[in-house]
UniProtKB/TrEMBL annotation, chain A:
Pfam families: BPD_transp_1. The chain crosses the membrane at residues 38-60, 93-115, 127-146, 152-172, 192-213, 248-269. The keyword Transmembrane helix applies. Residues 86-266 form the ABC transmembrane type-1 domain. This is NitT/TauT family transport system permease protein.
Automatic annotation (TrEMBL), chain B:
SMART domains: AAA. Keywords: ATP-binding, Nucleotide-binding, Transport. InterPro entries: AAA+_ATPase, ABC_transporter-like_ATP-bd, ABC_transporter_ATP-bind, P-loop_NTPase. PROSITE patterns: ABC_TRANSPORTER_2. The keyword ATP-binding applies. GO terms for molecular function: ATP binding; ATP hydrolysis activity. PANTHER family: ALIPHATIC SULFONATES IMPORT ATP-BINDING PROTEIN SSUB (PTHR42788:SF13), TAURINE IMPORT ATP-BINDING PROTEIN-RELATED (PTHR42788). Residues 11-238 form the ABC transporter domain. This is NitT/TauT family transport system ATP-binding protein.
């Protein structure tokens, strides 16, 4: 049976070798497609802006136009509230995210390496994955008070849950031939782990981190809507009370932009760190 | 140069049996296989799919503990892998995040060889397989043949006394395969090791070996042993000689015209 499976894998290996040989043409093709989508991206942005102007002018009650929102953005930057709110939200996200990943990576590795640990932890993991982190907020506030702790805890939970699953997936999907290759070169368990399992699962971990960061960002804004004294979500909550739609728009745009920047940064890190991968 | 060195066998398979669970039943990959391989000998194993060739190699490598019987290397029972027995895998199994040089140095690093000595030894074997210009390249930039040459250098670097090769050239195109066969024989004649080479290619089996082991399937067992009395170095003339053709015919016949259990795979 082993032979049959290997024969089936052979064309795939060859194909990978062939595509690996020609990075220049594929790179050229990719930059060509990117060039052709750029006008579309700009056009799409302009169309959106136009639609916004139209919506604002046909007179939905209180709906602000782009100019009004831009003015509000300048004011909020000028008086420092926007920067303060963004920093407050970012601080929460990064604290919770770093703590979550720092715990998720070792736990994921242990689960992937020791079946007993996996068996003990996995049911709880699967259960809590089904509970939206925001649903924990009422409980967290009751147990931890209304300061920073419950918000950071919820973000920690969001990033931990998504990172731990992908780390664990990364460990169990390490190619067993690579592990065998290390063992026949004399590697003992420790070296197999640090020298093969850890680097081979890095791509999975980084993907998990990206998902985790997205989940954290979504969670922090929602958590601030519920209970906070500063932050982007808090500012929106306040603006809602005063029917201040321009400020809500500013916050929404900033939330989207910061999320986009963080995601691109992690994507870039991922590309750099896992540059050795054969991409198909 | 006499191909077979006299004395106690380097590798002994003694009544090795191993089964896999398969769809509720048992699949006898190896059934009481006994085989002696002399020190410095080049033995190839051919056989149809499911004859247990790869299982034989995994048992010898220590990656698989057989259900019954044992494998002795230098008279000592094999339990678990050892750098003394180098393995070359069909899928190359290079560490994709390491350069060619780092791959070749991997085993030396585990053995605790110092950085300078490690680099010197790695360079020697990278040179041996002709990859000097690619020492700092990542595996993804190499062709299949180059990857396998890197894997051979990596196996040689830890100075094994035995090389176990599991269809190493099976995924390569015909031309590259012939080139690598010549390279391998050239290396083997200069850096003599005991080689157990698994293949499904009859030409390859005859061209490389002192001795061809033909296996049969269901259950996996040794069907015939055919001595290859052709001189080394093997050349194109030998490959095209009538003696080669005769041996090839003989091996071909015993691989593809095996007793009854094989009838069903004749499609």
């Amino acid at each position: 049976m082993a032979t049959v499976r290997k024969d089936a894998a052979a064309p795939a290996v060859q194909e990978a070798a062939v595509t690996g040989k020609g990075p220049a043409p594929s790179g050229k093709a990719r930059s060509r497609t990117r060039r052709s989508t750029l006008p579309l991206t700009i056009g799409s942005g302009l169309l959106g802006l136009l639609l916004w102007v139209v919506l604002a002018n046909i007179g939905i009650q209180g709906f602000p136009g782009p100019l009004e929102v831009a003015e509000r953005a300048v004011t909020s930057i000028g008086d420092g509230t926007l920067l303060g709110d963004a920093l407050a939200s970012l601080r929460r996200v990064l604290t919770g995210f770093v703590l979550g990943v720092a715990l998720a990576v070792p736990v994921g590795f242990l689960m992937g390496w020791y079946p007993v640990i996996r068996g003990l932890i996995e049911p709880w993991l699967q259960f809590f994955r089904m509970v939206p982190p925001l649903a924990i907020i009422p409980l967290a506030i009751v147990l931890m008070g209304i300061d920073e702790t419950p918000k950071i805890f919820v973000i920690f939970l969001a990033s931990f849950l998504s990172s731990v699953v992908s780390t664990f997936q990364g460990v169990v999907s390490v190619d067993s031939t690579l592990i065998n290759a290390a063992r026949v070169l004399g590697a003992k368990d420790r070296t197999v782990f640090t020298g093969v399992v850890v680097p081979a699962s890095t791509p999975f971990i980084l993907v998990g981190m990206r998902i985790g960061l997205g989940a954290s960002w979504a969670t922090v804004v929602a958590a601030e809507l519920i209970a906070a004294q500063e932050g982007l979500g808090y500012r929106m909550q306040q603006s809602q009370l005063y029917y201040d739609l321009p400020t809500i728009f500013v916050q929404l745009i900033v939330i989207g932009l910061i999320g986009l920047i963080m995601d691109r940064a992690l994507l870039l890190a991922e590309r750099r760190l896992t540059n050795w991968q054969e991409r198909r | 140069m006499s191909p077979v060195v006299s004395g106690a066998p380097k590798i002994e398979f003694r009544d090795v049996s191993h089964s896999f669970a398969l769809g509720g039943g048992e699949f006898a990959a190896l059934d009481r296989v006994s085989l002696d391989i002399a020190d410095g000998e080049f033995v190839t194993v051919v056989g149809p799919s499911g004859c247990g060739k790869s299982t034989l190699m995994n048992v010898a490598a220590g990656l698989l503990e057989p259900d019954a019987g044992q494998v002795l290397v230098d008279g000592e029972s094999v339990h678990g892998p050892s750098p003394q027995r180098g393995v070359i895998f069909q899928q190359y199994a290079l560490f994709p995040w390491m350069s060619v040089r780092k791959n070749v140095e991997f085993g030396l690093k585990i053995a605790g060889v110092g950085a300078a000595e490690r680099r010197r030894r790695a360079e020697r074997f990278i040179d041996m397989v002709g990859l000097t210009d690619f020492a700092d390249a990542l595996p993804k930039t190499l062709s299949g043949g180059m990857k396998q040459r890197c894997a051979i250098a990596r196996a040689y670097a830890v100075d094994p006394t035995i090389l176990l090769m599991d269809e190493p050239f099976g995924a390569l195109d015909a031309l590259t395969r012939v080139q690598l066969q010549d390279r391998l024989l050239d290396t083997w004649s200069r850096e003599r090791r005991t080689v157990l080479f698994i293949t499904h290619d009859v030409d390859e089996a005859v061209y490389l070996a002192n001795r061809v082991i033909v296996m049969a399937a269901r259950p996996g067992r040794v069907h015939r042993v055919i001595d290859v009395d052709l001189p080394y170095p093997r050349t194109e003339e030998i490959r095209l000689s009538p003696e080669f053709a005769e041996l090839r015919r003989e091996v071909w016949h015993s691989v593809y015209h095996q007793p009854t259990p094989m009838e069903r795979t004749s499609s």
